[in-house]
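Good day; I would like, with your permission, to put a structural problem before you. A protein sequence and the structure tokens that stand for its backbone fold form the material at issue. The record follows directly beneath this note:
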Amino acid sequence: MGKPTGFMEYKREDAPAYSVKERIKNFDEFHDPLSKEDQQKQGARCMDCGVPFCQAGMQIGSAFSGCPLNNLIPEWNDLIYKGNWEQAYNRLKVTNNFPEFTSRVCPALCEKACTCGANGDAVSVRANEYGIIENAYEEGLADARIPKVRTGKKIAIIGSGPSGLAAADQLNQRGHSVTVFERNDRVGGLLMYGIPNMKLEKDVIERKINIMEEEGVTFETCSNVGKDIKASEILKDFDRVILACGASNPRDIKVPGREANGIHFAVDFLKSTTKSLLDCNLREGTFISAKGKNVMVIGGGDTGHDWGGTSIRHGAKSVLQLEMMPKLPDTRSADNPWPQWPRVCKTDYGQEEAIAVFGHDPRIYQTTVKEFLKDKNGNLNGIITVKLESKKDEKTGRMVMSEVPGSETKLDADLVLIAAGFLGTEKYVADAFGVELNARTNVSTAEGAYATSVKNVFAAGDVHRGQSLVVWAIREGREVAHAVDESLMGYSYLSVQ
């Protein structure tokens, strides 16, 4: 695919980011898209590699490699190179319902498995995906496609995150009548309130939701099924139900002083900022503010990355990040060869901004909190940290991170954000429908299936697989749509990949 010698003739180019000084002035997306001409060159770099690991979406070693959606990447790279943007969009939409989302927030598993990246720089796949979908909107290719025939079957989807939206899109196009229930005041779930505006501006979500509504999908916001709406009513009124309500139970940290004022879950911090930004451009001060504060986040995942950029835009006095694990190597180790997912140190936009603003990397490795300190009024005014080292647990034989005696250190902190991951679905939803949970507190199904222990109730996305990536949520949304369609009609021609 592409130009046979393209990878030798053209260097990798990606959408350039605005300078830190410029981008921290607001909460807008901060990349300039490549021109069509530059994207055609990037498409030309795609090699005729024989085995396109980029689209494989398969487990190699301990992690998945390549796109979980099995996007037809070499095909649409070739089509871009040849200037056939309409057909590139058609091939992209075969596997991906929401390239406008994934081209902005996906960590680009495809690029990490790109053959060009084995001995050089990978093809700029995500930038090309962005170009395809935005061109499609400009040219009217992404306009609403209203189903011509309706089946008379009604489906309720609980949750409007990427999994629920993907299932809704697929099942609506099949001709079923789909209603999506969302407990928040806006549609989008994780996409709307879990991902900062700098990574995904919310008018991008609203643009797609408006199209889905035009196509016939019904969205019911401020509808908390299991509390405000009884599960029995949903089961009575709909032929099938899909639970796509995410893994939204944040993992807490239970150490002395946890009750101090000024300690929040990072996801609540991010949500409060985005909601206030959308409601009133932060004018009413209804969000958890980091302005003038020494901010500490505990955790090193995606949520743990996003807090930094958000805190800096608030005007934080300082930002630090505690990570339990050791720093990963800067380059692949010998036991982590291509095309495995690279286990290397990643410096995200939030850390880049912290380095530029404060002059140092905010991350402190192999460290956790031992105690939260508070003043006489109960307000947080510092934390005690302790160093960790890897030791073998004599009972289990496993390596665990253990405290290093005498390594305690006091650090200033006025605001602590806990980003220690999520524990699974919120119990009230599972209890409302009576579905079984597994040992990880996710909704239980048979291996490789989506039907729950309750008749006509299915589950997909993070509520089913646990905290994961947007691309995996979309994949599960497509797969559960196929399963639901088959259970209703006796067969299904809805594509999964």
In short: The chain has three domains: 6-138, 154-248+423-489, 263-418. The chain has a mean pLDDT of 94.
